[in-house]
Amino acid sequence: MVAGANTSYGSLGLAFVTSWNARSGSAKAEEAVPSLATLKPRSEFPAAEGDIANIVQQIDGAGSVVIMCGAGCRGAADLLRALSDRLRAPLVHTVRGKELMAYDDPRWMGGLGMIGTKAVYHAVQNCDLLLMVGTDYPYSNFLPTKGSVIQIDQRPQVLGRRAPTALGVTGSARPTLKLLLDRVSAKTDGKFWDKITHERKKWDEMLDKQSDLKRSKDRIHPQAVARAVSDAARRDAIFVLDTGLNTLWSANWIRQTGSQRIVGSFNNAAVGTALGQANGVQALDRSRQVIALTGDGGFNMLMGEFMTAVHHRLPVKVVVYNNSALGLITLEAESVGLVPFREAIEFPNPDFSALARACGGHGFMARKPDELMAAIGEALAIDGPAIVDAVVAADEMPNMPHVELEQVGHYAVAKIKEAVLAVTGG
Ligand SMILES: Cc1ncc(C[n+]2csc(CCOP(=O)(O)OP(=O)(O)O)c2C)c(N)n1
Ligand SMILES: [Mg+2]
To answer: How far does residue 288's CA lie from ligand 1's centre (Å)?
Structure first.
């Protein structure tokens, strides 16, 4: 029955192709089009003189300025630092911008949104002027609503589409920042800077506490996994993040050096893609340390990619946050007041360290806090592909730098519904 259905679909497709070819002559592309020379980086260009004058006037008139840096700021870190110092302006970043500067640079205050800090949320909401550079940051509910935004980007189509924007300027980050730096007046009032720095310090202390391995005796908290990997990684390692709650653990707890890369499916948020990306990155440079950090759901989807690593001798390291669940789906359901469908969300896992060995790679397991550092250390030190199976607490809640009351309400309703169902049996 099933085979018959397949056959008829197959012949239907073939019939369609044949008749289309007959009508159109041939569907084959005869030759490759020789335009490889067009595959080169886009050239940078500065904003127009009138726009620069306008931005300078608005910056000079503003009391407090915050500069939000996206991936378009690549190569502009020194200019951003200089502008930050001149304006006493905190630098904040998107996820794709995080890698541009070291975590402990005093100007680099942190990210905005779920991968971000309360200090940055307050900075962005309370500054007189938000200068967005090289970013199409999509989460509008974290951006100011009162229109005090200037956006600079070489892609005209992204200007003004995420927040009410006073001025949108087409220009590449680097040459435009250079022109601004030549023209803006220095600011002397450091009160705003000091306040954000103070809040940032408190947030960092909270991150340290949550990732402290001594926090629980018997359970590994996922924040500790991210922090341990970050602390053990080489200073020029490449982290490849997957999608899920694990993105929040990795992106919030990695303390980047400024010479590391942090890549992932950040625009698409495609679960399961980290290991494939890591293999691709590692194939470009086998001497660089490449570490994929993934959820167990994501790893299970495309675990065959580990065999690709073994086959092609790609020494990627894979760290699996093993919570036996599609963790983010639980949170998504609860945040809109739905009881999570746990039969589908929770699942059994193989022993990922044994799986690694079965594939011809190296495997390490950490079930208890005192096993974590050794597992990660050994995996990173070994020559060849390796998996660390880190069994983590499944009920860990992410930090909410900004939570709307409505969301809290939904979450509470979901929890109450779940409790009632547990008692009544549904
Ligand atoms: C290809 C794809 N499938 C499904 C989703 C929806 N989705 C987003 S997060 C997530 C859960 C991922 O689970 P896991 O990898 O275990 O990560 P955790 O949230 O538990 O850290 C899913 C299914 C997606 N974004 N992309
Ligand atoms: Mg999971």
So the answer is: 28
What's the CA gap between 125 and 143, in Å, rounded? 7
Pocket test for ligand 1, best of 271, 303, 305, 330 (most atoms within 8 A of CB): 271
How many Cβ atoms are within 10 Å of 211's Cβ, its own excluded?
Answer: 22
Which listed ligand is nearest to 245 at the C-alpha? 1
Nearest CA to ligand 1 atom 6: 271
Phi, psi of 116 (to 5 degrees): 180, -170
29: tokens are: 């592309």
Q: Please give the number of the atom of ligand 1 that sits closest to the Cα of 273.
A: 1
Query: Which of helix, strand or coil describes residue 26?
Result: coil
Question: Six-digit token pair at 263?
Answer: 């890549």
Reference 239, options 260, 257, 258, 212; nearest CA is 260
Which atom from ligand 1 is nearest to the alpha carbon of 328? 19
Could you tell me the distance, in angstroms and rounded to a whole number, from the CA of residue 394 to the centre of ligand 1? 14
Q: Note down pLDDT in tens along the chain; length 426 residues.
A: 333 333 333 333 333 333 444 455 567 777 777 788 888 888 999 999 999 999 999 999 999 999 999 999 999 999 999 999 999 999 999 999 999 999 999 999 999 999 999 999 999 999 999 999 999 999 999 999 987 999 999 999 999 999 999 999 999 999 999 999 999 999 999 999 999 999 999 999 999 999 999 999 999 999 999 999 999 999 999 999 999 999 999 999 999 999 999 999 999 999 999 999 999 999 999 999 999 999 999 999 999 999 999 999 999 999 999 999 999 999 999 888 899 999 999 999 999 999 999 999 999 999 999 999 999 999 999 999 999 999 999 999 888 777 666 666 676 677 777 767 766 765
CA of residue 269 to ligand 1 center, whole Å: 8
Closest CA to 114 of 232, 266, 228: 266
pTM above 0.85, yes or no: yes
How far apart are the CA of 325 and the centre of ligand 2, in A?
4
The pocket around ligand 1, CB under 6 angstroms, is made up of: 243-246, 269-272, 295-298, 321, 323, 325-329
| Ligand 2 midpoint to CA 177 (Å) | 41
Q: Are 70 and 94 in contact (CB under 8 A)?
A: yes
